[in-house]
Amino acid sequence: MLRHTRAAVEALAHAGALPPADLARRLGVPRPSVYRLLTALAHEGLVVPSADGSFALGTRWLGFGEAALRSASSWFDRDDLLEELRDRTGLTVFLSVPRPDRTVCIRRLHGRSYKILVLRPGGSLPLHLGGVGRISLAFGPQDADEYLDRAPFDPVTEHSLVTRPELEADIETSQATGATVSDQDVTIGVAAIAVPVLDGGALLAALSVAGRREDILGRVDVLRRSLTEAAGQMGSP
Question: Which segments cross the bilayer (predicted)?
Answer without folding.
Answer: none
